[in-house]
């Protein structure tokens, strides 16, 4: 049995223990091998949709519409609760476009996301996905109070396969341009949240892996009510290089009880960690650990 076949079997066994719906897609960048489970099923993305937003931003920069050095201001129209720090600050805060993108990714700041997405344009973001041949990844609504109680499949959706394709384009320096892809990788490697696909990797107290210049993970995740937990990551080491995306919905976290854990210790987050660690061990972990 090949390594990728063995991994497919292992991931299926891990996922089958989950009590909700889950999907995944994985591509080995070096061999081109692809595996997945229900990878074309449409799923709510939560904040994982911020990866396509990032790609669209860099396309707008490439097109000359925007500069990463342009200044952007936090206004009342951008305010939205949830993750991030800007919602706790006064309006009028000004920063560069790139700084807003950094906040959107590394701490999943929802206000910064509105600032970037409104600047680029939601239609433009969807158009860039179509240009990449991705027909299902879509933003229907901006981050606003209108989302409360709304059908999650009428907000932001994608599939495991399409999100993996986004990540693969960045990893292979094919998203917009080589320079743009490298800068997106630079931002995603700085992610402060390591509680999803990479949660079980041997992170140090400095949030780095041993020999971090060779061993690193560039990632983005998301969480929403209803047990929605998502994660997409680019894993790199001297031994291997692969991308993986996983979507979870339902499970114990959707019941509103403490059963199975909530928040970062929800059943979905635990599943993400187990799947990511199994893939890392099979394809990229240094032989010595």
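-> sequence recovered:
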């Amino acid at each position: 049995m090949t390594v990728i076949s063995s991994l497919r079997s292992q991931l299926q066994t891990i996922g089958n223990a989950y009590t909700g719906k889950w999907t995944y897609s994985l591509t080995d960048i070096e061999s081109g091998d692809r595996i997945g489970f229900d990878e074309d099923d449409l799923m709510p993305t939560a904040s994982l949709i911020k990866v396509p937003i990032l790609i669209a931003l860099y396309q707008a920069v490439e097109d000359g519409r925007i500069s990463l050095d342009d200044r952007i201001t936090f206004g009342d129209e951008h305010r939205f609760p949830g993750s991030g720090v800007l919602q706790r600050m006064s309006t009028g805060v000004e920063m560069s476009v790139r700084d807003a993108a950094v906040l959107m990714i590394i701490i999943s700041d929802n206000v910064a996301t509105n600032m970037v997405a409104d600047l680029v344009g939601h239609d433009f973001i969807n158009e860039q996905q179509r240009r990449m041949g991705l027909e299902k990844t879509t933003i229907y609504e901006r981050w606003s109070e209108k989302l409360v109680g709304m059908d999650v499949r009428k907000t932001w959706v994608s599939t495991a396969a399409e999100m993996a394709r986004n990540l693969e384009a960045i990893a292979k320096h094919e998203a917009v341009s080589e320079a743009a892809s490298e800068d997106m990788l630079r931002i995603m490697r700085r992610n402060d949240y390591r509680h999803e696909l990479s949660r079980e990797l041997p992170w140090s107290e400095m949030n780095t892996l041993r020999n971090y210049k060779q061993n690193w993970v560039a990632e983005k995740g998301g969480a929403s009510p209803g047990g929605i937990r998502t994660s997409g990551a680019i894993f790199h080491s001297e031994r291997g290089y692969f991308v993986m995306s996983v979507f979870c919905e339902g499970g114990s976290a959707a019941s509103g009880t403490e059963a199975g854990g909530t928040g970062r210790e929800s059943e979905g987050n635990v599943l993400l960690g187990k799947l990511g660690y199994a893939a890392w061990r099979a394809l990229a972990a240094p032989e010595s650990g």
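The first helix runs from residue 3 to 16.
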